[in-house]
Amino acid sequence: MTESLRVCAVIPVYNHAHLVGDTLARLQSQGLDCLLVNDGGDAQATAILTELSRTTGCELIEQRPNGGKGRAVVLGMHHAANRGYTHALQIDADGQHDTDDVPHLLALAQANPDAVITGIPNYDDSVPKHRLYSRYITHVWVWIETLSFEIKDSMCGYRVYPLASVVDLSRQVTLGGRMDFDTEVLVRLYWRGVRVISLPTRVVYPEHGVSNFRLWRDNVVISWMHTRLVCGMLLRLPKLLYWALRGRGNG
């Protein structure tokens, strides 16, 4: 994609096989290699993804049984790293992320290759209000867990990762496998000194989209994640206080 970065889009797919084609086409039109991760989809979804892979030339890998978004993304990133890519663009399959911002995300990654570049959602009226308000609870917990406001939004799954940092982290820590992944991976990368740079981006909830968020299950998972992260913050308190008081470098 660029002289110094090799970027692959990693797209986890569960119930959105019927929607991913448009996102895939938009990414490929910008010259991006794409990797679809079929997260235990049924026969119909698998057939759609198999046909997309055949007609577009994108790679398709399988995660069976269904393991959750986080595990699918990590599987895709390990595969991308093994193929020689340096960075992965994580994007949702259902079209909620604005692919027009891909060049802006990649430009920031080019200028800051060791950082995570993540979107800050600008929502339109399609966003469910309970989802919008509940995000602020996680924002507050993340600011406590990092003693910093550097992570402005930890729940947006539209970001560019330096693969070496994430692959190394995932080999040493069991990351959240479901809706807890996006937040946990950012906090743990921050603890390791990886910078987090944010870019405002438009996010919509497609009319025919299918949400994979399960209210009770995923809220329990997210609550347990924050419990783990607060304990981790306490163990790292001296370093985080130093960073908060004196500023921090990368490393």
CATH homology superfamily name? Spore Coat Polysaccharide Biosynthesis Protein SpsA, Chain A
**Global morphology:** globular
Largest β sheet strand count, sense and barrel closure: 7 strands, mixed
Task: Kindly state the number of beta strands.
Answer: 7
Rg, alpha carbons: 17 Å
Order of secondary-structure elements: EHEHEHEHEHEHHEHH
What is the helix content? 40-55%
Give the count of helical stretches: 9
Q: Under the CATH scheme, which architecture would be assigned? A: Alpha-Beta Complex
User: How are the strands of the biggest sheet laid out side by side?
Assistant: 3-2-1-4-6-5-7
- Decide which structural class fits the backbone: alpha/beta
Strand residue percentage: 15-25%
CATH class descriptor name:
Alpha Beta
Terminal-residue CA separation: 26 Å
Mean pLDDT: 89
* pLDDT < 50 stretches: none
> Under CATH, the topology is which?
Spore Coat Polysaccharide Biosynthesis Protein SpsA, Chain A
Overall tally of domains: 1
Q: How would you portray this structure in words?
A:
The protein has 251 residues and is an alpha/beta fold. The protein has one domain: Alpha-Beta Complex (Spore Coat Polysaccharide Biosynthesis Protein SpsA, Chain A), CATH 3.90.550.10. Helices cover 47% and strands 17% of the residues. It has 9 helices and 7 strands, in the order βαβαβαβαβαβααβαα. The protein has helices spanning 20-29, 43-56, 69-82, 102-111, 129-146, 163-172, 181-191, 215-235, 237-246; strands at 7-13, 33-39, 59-63, 87-90, 116-123, 159-162, 196-203. Strands 3-2-1-4-6-5-7 form a 7-stranded mixed sheet, with helices on both faces. Strand 2, helix 2 and strand 3 form a beta-alpha-beta unit. Helix 3 crosses helix 6, helix 5 (129-146) packs parallel to helix 8 and helix 7 runs parallel beside helix 8. The longest helix is centred in the last third of the chain and has 21 residues, at 215-235. The protein is globular, with a radius of gyration of 17 Å. The model has no long low-confidence stretch (mean pLDDT 89).
